[in-house]
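Dear U.,

For the methods section draft, I wanted the exact inputs and outputs in one place so we can describe them consistently. I've listed the two proteins in the order they'll appear in the manuscript figures. Please don't edit the token lines directly; just add comments below if something needs changing.

First protein:
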Amino acid sequence: MTAGLPKLVVVLGTTACGKSGLGVELARRYNGEVISADSRQVYKGLDLGTGKVTEAEMRGVPHHLLDVVEPGQPYSVADFQMAAYAAIDDVLERGKIPILVGGTGLYVRAVTRGFVFSGSKPDPALRETLERKSNAELYAVLREKTGVTLTGGEENNRHRLMRSVEKALSGSWEVPSACPRYDCLLLGVNFPREVVCRRIDDRLQARIDAGMLEEVANLRSAGVSDEFLDRLGLEYRYILWYLTGKIPTLEGLKDELGRAIKRFAKRQVVWFKKDRDVLWLDMEGDFLTQAADAVEQFLQA
């Protein structure tokens, strides 16, 4: 916690573990509003595949930073940070409690730590050259130029690797400095590994039954590029592969996508466990009371 700064409640953690529901419940109890911290839910039309909270699930709680850009439009962590700051400050100015909810680790950390990003712009010519390199080759270049070590799956995040290497080669690379704007309470949600895997399987089947395959097909029909869908990863990449025949059967899709989501969940745990300030809730116990008690103490401090 950082005394003297405006207060921000943060709900973070593993996919399929109930972040959205907890965020809504806390917002209802403490006159709050939710700010989404999800790198795919910012896009319009990406609903089932991202697990975007529905209007019914919001239960009257205002949500911010959902459906803010068109599919295919560039949107960086710096763009998100700027928009999140504006939304959080607006909530605070209206006397309400901002609750940041999401599982995109870099988005969460950009706000909670207050990273200061450089203003460098992408170089299209350099980007075209780098597109020909594998993730391993990009990471090798980054290590050579900066000495930085990436963990928790970031070494395989192609979009961020590309931007980092662009900055390193253009001479604009710098370790992000931090200037925290908020006093943050970090609440973490997670279950034992076997429970997470079961919840992922159940949710995947429910989303398929609800029309997730059709959602991706409709996005393609509306002109969203296969390149963009592939870059989104997980549901959109694997369903694209199924629709284009790379994955031949529905059972094969469910198997491959389910395993990919479980690997992603494991990387999320590794990422968030680095934050020693996180209060990990007992999700198999009375986690709601535990969270509410922590929020009350935080707000009264």
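Second protein (the one for the lower panel):
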Amino acid sequence: MFEFPNMINIPLAKVIDSIMDWLLLHLDGFFDFIGSIILHVVLALENLLLFTPWFVIILLIGLAGWKLLGKLSTGIVFMAMMFVIGGFGYWDLAMRTLSLVLASVFFSLLIGLPTGIKMARSDRAERILKPLLDAMQTMPSFVYLIPALMFFGMGKVPAMFATIIYAVPPVIRLTNVGIRTVDIEALEAAKAFGATPKQILFDVQLPLAKPSIMVGINQTTMMALAMVVIGSMIGAKGLGMEVLLAISRIEVGRGFEAGISIVFLAIIIDRITHSFSKTKDNK
């Protein structure tokens, strides 16, 4: 009497499996094309970072910390963090991880910014997309690995696919919020001067919404970095792979070094991306 009746059975798993089978059967070429584009972008960034001398990257990161955050000491700390990562022997792995994060953010912005703009300009689109974004953010990240593996196999591409799905919601949400909270008086003034909808969007709404959008980009970047360890489970080489190896071999020191390296990258990326919105606010 107190148990849930066995006769009630919702076959959602079978429906989803049928959809996946249909997609794999009829859209295999499409997924190969998408995978090829993603792979080319990742490899281009990876080759650029690995080809650039280590001291040049350290100096550029230090310069970015100094100029964007306004403190020379911050730039020096950033340089020290990157030097420590190299001292651990993880420089190449850190550059591979950074290339995955940058590529993920690039594709997330290509998807997220137009989607956020559409969401801000259409109440219907907002009602449709909000539940989808809620699901994307609350779904366990491991679940994304299953369709990624089915569509793209093992390697960098499925890790990128799962990372993009996991990381894109913040930039969509905050682009929508930023545009919707633009001062109505500014919009009315632009309309009074005869501005077209396109001019209002690019000359009024997006510039005024920039702080909110930059916070969204910051959050998207951090969520992409959070997928580093999970992505390594399906063949994405990087610092996450070192963490997994340390866990499997119970090597505490190795795991600690890889974990500290990920934390250092996260701090640098967070401070640099957050500085854009902060600078705008201060003005």
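Candidate sentences for the figure legend, describing the second protein: The mean pLDDT is 86. The radius of gyration is 22 Å.

Thanks,
Y.
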